[in-house]
Design brief:
The complex is a heterotrimer of chains A (399), B (168) and C (159). Chain A is α/β, with parallel strands linked by helices and 399 residues long. Chain A has a domain of 131 residues: Thiolase/Chalcone synthase (Peroxisomal Thiolase, Chain A, domain 1). Chain A has a nine-stranded mixed sheet. In chain A, strand 10 and strand 11 form a beta hairpin. Chain A is globular. The mean pLDDT of chain A is 93. Chain B has one domain. Chain B is globular. The N terminus of chain B is likely disordered. The N and C termini of chain B lie far apart (70 Å). Chain B has a five-stranded antiparallel sheet, with no helix packed on it. In chain B, strands 4-3-5 form a three-stranded antiparallel sheet, covered by helices on one side. A two-stranded antiparallel sheet of chain B has the order 7-8. With 159 residues, chain C is mostly beta strands. Chain C has one domain. Chain C has two helices and ten strands; from the N terminus they run αββαββββββββ. In chain C, the strands form two sheets. Chain C has a five-stranded antiparallel sheet with strand order 8-7-6-9-10, with no helix packed on it. A three-stranded antiparallel sheet of chain C has the order 4-3-5, with helices on one face. Classes of the chains: A alpha/beta (399), B mainly beta (168), C mainly beta (159). Chains A and C meet through helix 1, helix 2 and helix 4 of A and strand 2 of C.
């Protein structure tokens, strides 16, 4: 990158199932909190990047309605729409803009609200799954698709078949996420969950249980990026963006054979390749040792295990053993998702940004009760979306 | 903040918008041929890339693997009607039929099916497997497409009722 | 001379296959939000039109906004504006469409109410479209039975 870029502010709203606030109100709240965190005003912001998935809040072109609420009146604005990874792509765009010298301070805003028809017209769950299926091929995939749940049931089946992963381990992993989330004041699902609770939860599509799957959450987040010069003036604790990578997966979900119908190991090819590129560019040869914290975008608990392997944090088919012995706990040798992850908080559009922001908090030592108890110098955050889209951000305490 | 206190005092009903909008759009030249063959002849057709031999199912002019162009003289091939099961998902919840926006459910599991194809790779299709007892199914078993009668076929995937397990 | 097509002629000349799909977000219910809620509640319960005021810029926004677009202050000061004002601009809609407030031809205008600095979009009624002029003074005509939405104002009539 031509110029160094740092995160100088992070704001989020309390994440809930059904917010009484509108998209505009939530976005405004997160933006104001991010600016408070950075101790800057809207005058200091050169550009705004809005991340959104079209039509999910009932109308398109949300940048129009959001204008006054994120402060982009008469400012340069970019609107990014990349499906599930949208806030990841938007953050990467902001980094590119600053690195290229197009601006010095960029505010990225992402908000998820999910209105639905009156429940007697179409049940909300089915409606939202259909919205996720909206990006699928009309003839080939949409007709038998149940959105994300079906995809991950297929992946989980394959993982059990190849690795021998037990239900108990997955339940343990989910209980860990719940425990972490109780220490995160903004997380959505903040109740303690035992292994028994997880094992008893209803089966959605074998072996995927209700509690394995991420919830539907409503909320907003905002991140502020700045150039090296401005970052050092704005804050004593800039979190340096060492690298960003973004790779897209496949044309059809069905084409991701390695994920749904693998022969030896379950893999999301774009995640594998993106990490390879990132590690090589940054001289990382032993990621499990060199990374102090990892925030993985895991749409379900099974994905946390599979993605760990794809990120070469352990050998293929071994992730569940690592999780089983507690290595991924907040005080373990490789803390994964100390925030509780997406399985505890999933506002959709901001979900990837929350991963980036949470790693930043860990590096700053600002994560409060869910701070990992060690010096955090290097952290990696991932995103996920259709069709197997992977954005990555490597964050560092040092320039 | 004063605004949240006044929330209860100033309650109005949610905004409710109803717009009956349909989209009608062509499926394209290559997908169109696939749908015509399905509807009229109960045949599954794909394409084999003339540059690298990869099977494209559904058919498309640009190869997904080598990006080779197959516009001019596409190599149409019949695929199936048998396939190998490569993945399974048992659907225990209803979902929305995209053509009618009504809830639908199925007793049959959905399988990832590697459809027999002459190219150097199989075609992949997601479809129902005609066996409600999932314990009888396993990855690697063979299945065969069962088509609806001509008058019920529309050129959509539902023209295939399901794929029935074949022998042992 | 037409360029030869890159596509096989048997595909180009075949009957196009189309699919028909209902759009998904055609029946949606969503919260109005705190700012608009107060606007509509005041309209419904007291028959008053309210806006929010920015102290710094001395601007009154109708419809009310939660932030000032100029200075980004949070707007918490609510003021009442007049039911009458100026027709700033208008158009006559002839084309039929979906979700129209009135049968075409109807007059759609932007009205700046006395006391406000921004315009409210609404229709005109009790007027011959040919006699509408920019700069006309107009007055809101409210429904007797109000629900708490923009249709509580039936239209604006000339005064």
């Amino acid at each position: 990158m031509k110029r160094k870029v740092a995160i100088v502010g992070f704001g989020q709203t309390e994440m809930v199932a059904r917010s009484p606030k509108t998209k505009m109100e939530l976005a405004n709240q997160a933006v104001r909190r991010a600016m408070d965190d950075a101790q800057i005003t809207i005058k200091d912001v050169d550009e705004v990047v809005i991340a959104d998935i079209e039509f999910f809040h009932g109308s398109g072109e949300s940048e129009m309605q959001l204008a006054d609420c994120v402060g982009h009146y008469m400012k340069p604005v970019m609107k990014i729409e990349t499906g599930g990874t949208v806030s990841g792509s938007a953050c990467i765009s902001a980094v590119h803009h600053i690195a290229a010298g197009a601006c010095d301070v960029s505010l990225v805003s992402a908000t998820g609200v999910f209105p639905a028809p009156p429940p007697d017209v179409i049940p909300r769950g089915a409606f939202l799954q259909a919205s996720l299926s909206a990006g699928m091929h009309p003839v080939w995939e949409k007709w038998c698709s149940v959105g994300a749940i079906g995809l991950f049931a297929l992946m989980a089946n394959a993982y059990v078949r190849l690795s021998g992963c037990t239900e108990e381990t997955v339940a343990k992993c989910r209980a860990k996420a719940a425990r972490n989330a109780t220490r995160n004041p903004y997380a959505h699902l903040r109740g303690i969950m035992t292994v028994e609770d997880v094992l008893k939860s209803p089966m959605l599509m074998a072996p995927l249980r209700h509690l394995h799957m991420c919830p539907i959450t409503e909320g907003s987040a905002a991140l502020i990026f700045a150039s090296e010069e401005r970052a050092e003036k704005i804050t004593k604790n800039p979190v340096w963006v060492k690298d960003v990578v973004s790779l897209h997966g496949a044309q059809y979900w069905g084409a991701l054979h390695e994920m749904f119908a693998p022969k030896e190991r379950v893999a999301l090819p774009s995640l594998v390749k993106a990490c390879d590129i990132l590690y090589k560019r940054n001289g990382i040869t032993n990621p499990a040792k060199e990374l102090d914290v990892v925030e993985i975008y895991e749409p379900c608990t099974w994905a946390e295990l599979v993605f760990m392997e794809n990120m070469r944090l352990c050998e293929p088919n071994e992730a569940w053993k690592l999780a089983d012995r507690g290595a991924t706990e907040i005080d373990g040798e490789l803390p994964i998702n100390p925030s509780g992850g997406v399985t505890c908080t999933n506002p959709g559009m901001p979900s990837t940004m929350l991963r980036f922001g949470e790693v930043a908090l860990q590096i700053r030592g600002d994560a409060g009760e869910h701070q990992v108890p060690r010096e955090v110098r290097l952290g990696l955050a991932t995103g996920f979306g259709g069709t197997g889209w992977t954005p990555l951000m490597l964050l560092s305490k040092y320039k | 903040m004063s605004r949240s206190k006044s929330q209860g005092q100033y309650e109005v009903p949610p905004s409710h918008m109803i717009t009956s909008v349909f989209m009608e759009y062509p499926m394209g030249l290559f997908m169109g041929k696939f749908m015509r063959e399905l509807k009229e002849n109960a045949r599954l057709v794909g394409m084999v890339c003339r540059q690298c031999g990869h099977t494209m199912f559904p058919p498309q002019a640009l190869c997904s693997v080598c990006y080779g162009e197959n516009f001019q003289d596409p190599q149409w091939v019949e695929v199936g009607p048998e396939a190998t099961v490569a993945g399974l998902m048992e659907i225990k919840m209803p979902w929305l039929n995209p053509w009618t926006l009504t809830l639908r459910a199925s007793q049959y599991p959905v399988g990832i099916l590697m459809v027999d194809a002459p190219g150097r790779s199989p075609g992949v299709i997601w479809h129902f497997i005609a066996e409600t007892d999932v314990s009888k199914l396993r990855v690697g078993m063979r299945v065969k497409a069962v088509f609806k009668p001509r008058e019920e076929r529309e050129g959509l995937m539902e023209d295939i009722l399901y794929w029935a397990p074949v022998g042992e | 001379m037409t360029k030869a097509s890159i596509y096989p002629s048997e595909l180009e000349s075949a009957q196009p296959i189309t699919v028909k799909q209902p759009a998904l977000f055609t029946n949606v219910q969503y919260t109005v939000g705190a700012t608009d809620s107060r606007f509509f509640a005041e309209l419904r319960d007291r028959g008053k039109i309210m806006g929010t005021r920015c102290e710094t810029c001395d601007l009154v926004y109708v419809p009310p906004r939660m932030n000032c677009k100029e200075c980004f202050s949070e707007l918490n000061e609510w003021v009442e504006v007049e039911e009458k004002g100026l027709l700033v601009t208008y158009t006559i809609v002839h084309e039929p469409g979906i979700r129209q407030p009135m049968e075409p031809p109807y007059v759609l205008g932007i009205i700046r109410l006395d006391g406000a600095d921004t315009g409210l979009v609404h229709c005109l009624g009790e007027v011959d479209p040919d006699h509408v002029r920019i700069g006309m003074r107009v007055q809101a005509v409210l429904k007797e039975e109000r629900e708490g939405n923009i249709n509580d104002i039936r239209y604006f009539k000339p005064i």
